[in-house]
Amino acid sequence: MRKVFGVSHQTLVKSIGVTYQQIHKYERAENRVSAAMLVRICQSLKIAPWRLSVPIFTRASE
């Protein structure tokens, strides 16, 4: 998700206060993201948490 919004690992790490390794584990679904952490990530990406449940990309034919 951070890549879609053009946010680097380093920027996200500084913004939400976790390690590079933790972000990597979140992105690979190796660790679960708590609700509180999800809110912090969304704040960093400047999106509402509900947007994560809406598809970002749709096919042109739809």
Structural account:
With 62 residues, the chain is an all-alpha fold. The protein has a domain at 9-50. It is built from three helices and no strands. The chain is globular. The two termini are 22 Å apart. The mean pLDDT is 84.
Percent of residues in beta strands?
under 5%
Number of strands: 0
Total DSSP helices: 3
Cα-atom radius of gyration? 13 Å
Helix coverage percent? 40-55%
Summarize the helix and strand pattern as letters. HHH
Distance N terminus to C terminus?
A: 22 Å
Low-confidence stretches: none
Task: Quickly give the structural class.
Answer: mainly alpha
Largest sheet: none
Assign an overall shape: globular
Average predicted local confidence, pLDDT: 84
Report a brief summary of the structure.
The protein has a domain at 9-50.
Quick tags:
single chain, 62 residues, mainly alpha
How are the SSEs placed, and which strands pair?
Elements (H helix, E strand, L loop, with lengths): L8 H8 L3 H8 L7 H11 L17
